[in-house]
Amino acid sequence: MSPCRHILLAAALFAATGLFAQEADPLVPRQTAEFWVSTSVVVKPFHKKSGAVVERAFAKRFRLSGELGYRGNENLFNGKLVYGVIGFRYRFNKHVRLMLENRYNMRGPSGTNSFRNDVQLDLTTKMGRFGLGYRLTGQHEYIEALQFRDILRNRAELNYNVKGLPLTPYAAAESFNVLHYKGNLLIGMRYTLGAQWNLGKGRSIDAGVRHDREINLYDPLQRWIFAFSFDMDLD
Asked: Of 210, 205, 207, whose CA–CA distance to 192 is shortest?
C-alpha cells in the first residue's frame, strides 16, 4: 500500500473515532419550566372516648392525610399530571415520624396512569429558631420493570422561624437514586428555596421555587418548578 493510502486510511479512522466520541458525549440538558399546585388535609381519626381519663398512645399519634395535586408545564393550563394521595402517619415522638402514602397518577391521553406506594421516615429537630429536617423515602411505582420503578430519596432541609411573623423560610436539597436490576444509579438532584406562611387554626400556605436536575441519564432534563400548596391540619 502506498504512503498516500496509509495517510488516507489513518485520516478516515481518526475521523470515525472522532464522530463516535462526539455521539457518545452527553447531550446538553433540555430546559423547561413547570407549575405545581396542591392542597392537603390531615385529620385525627381517633379521639379520646367520652369519660376516658387517658387517651391511648396510638390514637394520640396516628393521623390520616389526603392530598390532591396538579402539575402543568410553561402553560399552566396545559396539564401533564393530576394525582391523589391517601396517607397514614404515626409520630413516635416530636423528632420521629413514619408515613405510608398511596398515590394514583393520572397523566391524560398522552401518558400512562399508574399507582405508587411511598414509605417515608421523617427526622426533625430544633435549635432555637432554626429547624433541621431529614426525610428518607422509599418509592415503588407499578410500571414496567424496564422503567425506574424503585427510587430511594434523601432530603435535607434547613428552616428558620422569623421572630414576630408567622413565616418560616427554608432551603432543601434532595437526591434521587434508582434501584434497578441493571444497577443502582444516582439519577437526579432537586434544590428548593421556599417559605411557609402560617394562617392559624392549622392552615398554612407553602410557596417555593425548585430546580430539578437529571443526572447520569441520556437526554437529561432540567426543570424550574414553581410550587404552591394550601395545607390544613384539622386535628
From this structure: 210
DSSP SS3 for 166: coil
pLDDT digits (tens, 9 = 90+) for 87-105: 999 999 999 999 999 999 9
Residues 6+ apart with CB under 8 A from 220: 26, 27, 29, 30, 213, 214
Q: Which residues of 190-213 are buried (b: 16+ CB within 10 A; e: fewer)?
A: bebebebeeeeeeebebebebebe
Q: Is there a contact between 114 and 103 (Cβ–Cβ < 8 Å)?
A: no
C-alpha cell at 180: 434497578
Question: Model's pTM, two decimal places?
Answer: 0.84
- The answer to whether the beta carbons of residues 95 and 124 sit under 8 Å apart is yes
Asked if residue 62 lies in contact with residue 45, where contact means CB atoms within 8 angstroms, the answer is: yes
